[in-house]
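re: ur question from yesterday

yeah so i grabbed the chain u mentioned. its 786 aa long if i counted rite. heres the sequnce exactly as i have it in my notes:
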Amino acid sequence: MPTPLGATAVLDQQLRFAGWSREAEVLFGLASEEVLGRSADAVLADAETGAGLSSAAGDGGAAGALGPRPVRRGDGRPVSVSLALTPLALGAGATGWLLTAMDAELAHREAIGRAMLDGLDREAPVQLVVYDTDARVRWINTAIEKQFGIPLEDAADRFLKDILPQGEVLGEAEGTAASVEEIVQRVARTGAPVIDVRYRSSTHLDPHHERVWSCSYFRLQDEHGRPIGVCEAGLDITDRYVARQRLALLSRASGSIGRTLDIRRTAQDLAELVVPEFADAVTVDIVEAVLSGQEPQHFATHPTLCQVAHRTDHAAAEDTAYDALDTVRLRCLAENAPATDAATHALALPLKARGATLGAVAFARSRHADPFDQEEIQLAEELVSRTAVCLDNARRYAREHATALTLQRDLLPRTLPQQPGVEVAHRYLPAAGPAGVGGDWYDVIPLSGARVGLVVGDVAGHGTSAAATMGRVRTTVAALAALDLAPDELLARLDDLVARTSAPPSGPAEAEDQALGVTCLYAIYDPVSRHCVMARAGHLPPVLVTPDGHAELVDLPAGPPLGLGGLPFECADIELPEGATLALYTDGLVENRHTDIDAGVSSLCTALAGPEDGQLDKTCDKVITTLLPQPPEDDAALLLLRVHGLAESLVATWDVATDAGEVARARSLACNQLAAWGVDEAASFVVELVVSELVTNAIRYGGAPVCLRLIRERGLIVEVSDGGHTSPHLRRAAMEDEGGRGLFLVAQLTQRWGTRYTPTGKTIWTEVSPVPAQMPGIFAGEQFDL
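ran it thru and got these structure tokens back, copy pasting raw so excuse formatting
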């Protein structure tokens, strides 16, 4: 049996027991028959001093507390009890005593419990609410009444949502709930406590300011374990919550502001971050020059400002002091320093980075909200400072991107030459991401003999450095192509030049832009034979689309990227069908973070396949739309060429014997062919002179086999091939010299001339206008025997 909190006994006038309760039997371990009639001095003697009750009660029978004192139980064990004597009137006018006894430890606990309950009710700073199992309020302590301004009689038997309709649950550690009522009902049902639920609400005493409490819930039950209600213990954590929200705001700022190198997007990121959590309205104004990437001017010069971001919390729109935004912002700009207005709840801060002011940010709050305090101003300054750094980075990127794009566009061909035997269409898309402009390029280069050089390449890296390197490499390719080099030899020479350029500097100075990682594909198409010779250095192979619409990659040996040095390149020679299309491209067209290069090339082949629609420009647009529906992450270049062969009637070829007498025959054959083509007499005279000179030189200095070829395409092309490898050179003969003027005359009378080497020798070629201008003055007073 549990020890009772209180026991009673009745004593007569001589302090002998006249009554002994059941609780006294349990407390002292003595049955009533063992006690009745005995002296209390003997039964309840002090176990340590032996003193009885009579000495404690005194001669006058004083009433009051007599303990605590140690008393021996019936089993000999001591027990500490608190005793109290109260006078009684017994029968026949006799007097006696009511003795009450209590376990001293339990009595102490009971006293503490009563004091604690009284303290929780009246003195504790913790807000306490007792709900019944239906979540109706049954009791609140004084702390609730003081903070919320609600007396118990107004709260009893009501739901919290009816008392504080604007309150909301922000979250709880375990599980989720839409309201306090749901939490209370769940705790009453399951018995599982819920800890640290954040509840936000205004109060009746301060309806315009919200506070936050951390609330915990546990079930109350009777002695039989049946639930009778739920207790809620709440603690005001508004200051701590606000501090944590500010830290969280700064943390989110690190991840949300400056995610892109776009000035307007960065300003909008700030506005979206602070409204409505920190302010009810915000505007961001940027110096106009900054938007174009220029260095910001000093505010003393009154720069033009552009509002790039504005955001408002519509819930507080009517109560927000919008007029104050302009006033405070103008003062901030005029003083180039923070400006506040506590009366209108507005704050403006300058956007400063690297000592320069980029613009200003203005915040405003509802008239019913608190004005910005010092800690909040410091928080705003930190947010604006971070934003300013991101804006300046975006400005510098915009400037470099614009410079690189301008440089690249200036270095890329504005128009491609119209060459015989090919139709050309091209597209170039600069990178739209933060990587910036890259080093992709393409070109169409006129070559001798109506041939055309085709080139596409890619310089690793981005920015002005990549664009400058691209320009240098493209110029080098054009210069090497002018030497009429075969594709593999051209790439070999280009490889040597790139390797030397990319070598580390010998001194402490920084190296120039590096050209390592350059890829290139070079091809030569001859419309006379319809053959295309090509080689590649680390570049993707071209796609060939046959006239029936079939598209496939060209089987072209892979060479190493340029700059590695010493590794060979191989050519492939293929005959292209009449009307076939060749597609040259860079990896930005077929590869991105979502698509691997094999899948991209397959998509390119699919986009190019199908019947020809007759317009290459439309085919270009189709490919770009299919493969790049969004702005590319890397530069992308596409060069399409539809090839045609020259008609046999426009080409005439003769073998010439290595005999001086064959020169006259060669002139005759050329004149007859020119007459058949209907060439102007003046042009025929020039061609006759060129043929005479070149065939003579081939027989005299070159050797067999000698071949003469005429091509009629826009102009007239004269080619003489021989078996020699000695390069002819131009010289001016003296007045007394009998010869040496032939090649000089050829250079003066033709539009272009040059030499290209073949596996069997060399070819001297010239281009003659079909309607030559007036003959140059070198003919005046001189006679030529043709």
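noticed a couple things. The CA atoms of residues 364 and 508 lie 54 Å apart. also Confidence is low (pLDDT under 50) at residues 507-513, 733-739, 774-786.
anyway ttyl
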